[in-house]
Design brief:
alpha/beta, Purple Acid Phosphatase, chain A, domain 2, 6-stranded mixed beta sheet, 6 helices, 16 strands, globular
Amino acid sequence: MTRCAKNALAIAAALTAVVAVAAGIARQNVSIDVTDYKYKSKKVSSELSGFKIAHISDLHNRRFGDENAYLIDKIKACEPDIIVISGDLLDSRHTDIEAAVEFAASASEIAPVYYTTGNHEQRFSQSELSYFLDRLRNAGVIVLEDEAVELSNGMRLVGLSDKSVGTDVLPKLLSQGSSEAFTLLISHKPHYAQWYADCGADLTFCGHAHGGQVIIPFVGGLIAPDQGLFPKLTQGLHYYGNSATVISRGLGNSLIPIRINNPPELVIVTLESLPE
């Protein structure tokens, strides 16, 4: 074989490898991982044991299929008792309120949906945000903006708006109602996880970190907002004493339009009681 032919083969092989890698990354960005966690606690009553929560975060106006049919089918197959959305349903850079409301309406047909804002929603004017939240309510979503609600099964859901993270709003919300209630907190930012636990939340749902955007094998995420390079809190279930925070890698992208080794994620958490 001539040198010219060998060079041509080498170039072809290199291009094939590049195309294969690019195709693999592209597939990662359109598929959805379903990650299951079990949260075990003595505070979970026998009535709540087996209760299943679907966690959506950081959709950023993305559509998975027509009318988000692929994502909706994934959620439906998991048969959740409730769905929680921990912010950034919208994206402030390319906002599509109709897409967000369309998804929320379809999700509400599967199970009750509880939502609080992320940093992207908080970038809108008060009138724009109020309009969006009203549209969500009309679609059947329970909007919890610095609000708490108690369910008949003894669970209390608290939604902390992104603007109130780190303020005295959460301690005040958690001081209301029964101290025996199992408290589920929905808040966007995971790097406040220790604070959520210190305030008294039992189980907190967060997103925001996008899984670190690029996951380096044996190292972890590369970068996350508010955490910088090699962030510690990008995904998974993290315990803080008797409390825990579950962090979703999220479903969409914003400023950085691609994920590597980091497919979009739907999180499912099943509660389990422990004997006293």
